[in-house]
Fold:
Amino acid sequence: MDVEGAEWESLLETPDEVLERIEQLPMELHGVNEPRFLKLVQKLKRNFYIVHLHFNNWACAADLAPFPASVYQVLFVNKRIGVVGTPEIGAPTARAFDARDNPKGADCQLPPSFF
Structure:
């Protein structure tokens, strides 16, 4: 889902009964500093685990702390099918396969210790 900012209101208006039927929700989110952003993430976390977070390096900005960018991709997996666990020792991290959105630009991911 990548609807250039409309994702916030669209999903806030989506009933939980609809969200419960979605197994995976990959999406790009735009924005970090409005109350509705927190409200939506809290709503989605009722039905989903956040399993991956990648910041779009086209939108890196130093003034957004604690976020490194105003645009980021998130993968939500429904709690009906997701299992919380610990990765096996030596398993590759998500960073091993994350590509920069802007291949020529500096990356601005959060350090692994953040998670």
Observations:
- Residues 7-101 form one domain.
